[in-house]
Amino acid sequence: MHPLRDQLRALAEQGHGVILTADLRRLGLDPAERASVAKSLVPIRRGAYALDEPADAVAEHLLRTRAALGQASRRAAASHVSAAVTLGLPVPAEFLGVVHLRVASARARVGTRHGVHTHAGLEEVGASMLPDGRLVTDATATVLDCARMLPHTDSVVLADAALNQGLIDLEVVQGALRRLSRHRGVAAARRALAMADAGAESVGESRTRLILVAAGFDVETQVELRDELGRFVARVDLKLRDAPVVIEFDGRAKYSLDGDAKGAHWRDKVRNDRIGNLGFERVRVWWNRLAQPAEIVRDVERARARALGRLSPER
To answer: How much is the pLDDT for 237?
Structure first.
């Protein structure tokens, strides 16, 4: 490998994927050489590069966040959606166009510049240092910041994930929210937190639950089903409280990743039969169906009618 390429790869490893213009200067390259090298790299943001194209919007945002932190002239922490993706929480790609940082309030220049939105108030929220030396606002502050800026569904999905991963305590978050009573977006955050559920194990499960709740269904999450002898049969994503109907989100990954599609399909069939033998109707939801919530609601209504019809003493 070319010696310069070796040096660039070492720089990228040190910067966790990011090479700054300042790093190129430290290699002793003159302006013309730096410009030439930059043409062989992938631009991430002004004055920052990567060796390879990021895999997706989240990976790109993480690189741009690391670059912005590395270029910050004062102590700064990733915040809002930038903190969320740093902590592994789900954020839709359409909200990842701008990096968000928090800095101390004193003489802070808030606003958006060169793709970075700077927020004041770092001293007012908790922040922790990651193994690579980056600062990120703690999960409580991150969830609250996101809940005050994202649409309702996306806020709930993010809060669900934080709860499910054990990153936040709902009572602590609600207490912190009360202290923000005069801040913009508090009402929206309060509504989102009221809907949060630690039982959701994926974005799809969260969105499915929100569709059903909006339609008036009373649902519970991660319910264990047992037979008449108390033996475990299955754990289901969602169940109606007033009828033997289960709703499950199918991410379509289980047949493609385990290398045993036929076996997985057979196990799923056996599981479905056992759930049906307990008297439950089952509705399955997958990604494409989330764009048609009325169809999901219709199918659940029909399943509920069938289930209650079987239970009716007149039949």
So the answer is: 97
